[in-house]
Amino acid sequence: MQILRYTAFSQDPDGGNPAGVVLDATGADDAQMQSVAADVGYSETAFLVPTEHGSARVRYFSPRAEVPFCGHATIAASVAHAAGHGPSRLVLATSSGPVTVTSDSGADGSLTATLISVPPTTRALTAPDEAALLAALRWERGDLDPALEPAVAFAGAWHPIIAARSRERLADLRYDRARLGALMAARGWTTVALVWRQDEATFHARNPFPVGGVYEDPATGAAAAALGGYLRESHQVRLPAQVVVHQGADLGRPSRINVGIPVGPATGIAVSGHAVPMP
């Protein structure tokens, strides 16, 4: 397998979220993919198996386990494919359903990609799960933004969405890794989307990912898509809406995720951004 390394949601190799990309993993079994992902060491590596022109099956592995969907690795894979074959539209068969991703080249030669998620779903976070989650995060109920109720959202993978009352609260992330990891594994949550709303169209986010063997994800496209679905379902934005999610600044890897929220509850969320090769 040829293993490529790209960082997504940034034009700077020192920013964004690094991902491994294998554009042709034909013949690789689960153990081989898991081993490669562990060796690469990024939060996810995407393994594509081309099925026909413009289509491929894709699986995503963190250093510790397979995950159902990964946004930043999808963006990275699309840009890596465009770098070798030119901008194109790919239809990816993920374990959560079909995801279309389209790459494009800017006037400056930079490559971007936009994915359309599976239709999102949002459900309430139960009181016991909320209490357990806040305890693992070492947060209090008073740390939360009362305008954005805690919820669990899906757009390919499940993510609790917890909104902080202040940027300072978001910046102070010192969670109980073992406790949070056990809760997430029991509930099937991929990352925890911690957000702070700067204004109607601007969010800052942090995403603990202990179940994947990573303390924190620098840019989480799947969680950004889930956030878009949550904002639409909870009537927090005027539709259609464009939202920007800033993530990774607290890790020294600033990222920008553009989220397009269309009208219609059954329509997927658009997530777009740049990607560049890692040195």
Layout: helices, strands, pairs:
Layout: E1 4-8, E2 17-22, H1 30-40, E3 44-52, E4 55-61, E5 66-67, H2 71-85, E6 89-94, E7 97-105, E8 111-116, E9 121-124, H3 127-137, E10 151-154, E11 158-163, H4 167-171, H5 177-187, E12 193-199, E13 202-209, E14 214-217, H6 221-233, E15 241-247, E16 255-261, E17 270-277
Parallel strand pairs: 2-3, 4-6, 11-12, 13-15
Antiparallel strand pairs: 1-2, 1-17, 3-4, 4-5, 6-7, 7-8, 8-17, 9-10, 10-11, 12-13, 13-14, 15-16, 16-17
Helix pairs in contact: 2-6, 3-5
Explain this structure.
The structure is a single chain. It contains six helices and 17 strands. It is an alpha+beta fold and 279 residues long. It has two domains: 113 residues, Diaminopimelate Epimerase, Chain A, domain 1 (Roll), CATH 3.10.310.10; 154 residues, Roll (Diaminopimelate Epimerase, Chain A, domain 1), CATH 3.10.310. An eight-stranded mixed beta barrel has the order 1-2-3-4-6-7-8-17. Helix 2 packs across helix 6 and helix 3 packs antiparallel against helix 5. The mean pLDDT is 97.
What descriptive keywords fit this protein?
about 280 residues; alpha+beta; Diaminopimelate Epimerase, Chain A, domain 1; 2 domains; eight-stranded mixed β-barrel; 6 helices; 17 strands; globular
* Total DSSP E strands: 17
**CATH superfamily name of the largest domain?**
Diaminopimelate Epimerase, Chain A, domain 1
Q: Major sheet, described briefly?
A: 8 strands, mixed, barrel
Class from helix and strand fractions: alpha+beta
Assigned CATH architecture of the largest domain: Roll
Radius of gyration, taken over Cα atoms and rounded to an integer in Å? 17 Å
The total domain count is: 2
Terminal Cα separation, in Å?
19 Å
- What proportion strand? 35-45%
Assembly of the depicted chains: single chain
Structure annotation, total helices? 6
Mean pLDDT: 97
Tell the overall outline.
Answer: globular
The strand line-up of the biggest sheet is 1-2-3-4-6-7-8-17
Low-confidence stretches: none
CATH topology of the largest domain: Diaminopimelate Epimerase, Chain A, domain 1
Order of helices and strands: EEHEEEHEEEEHEEHHEEEHEEE
Percent range for helical residues? 10-25%
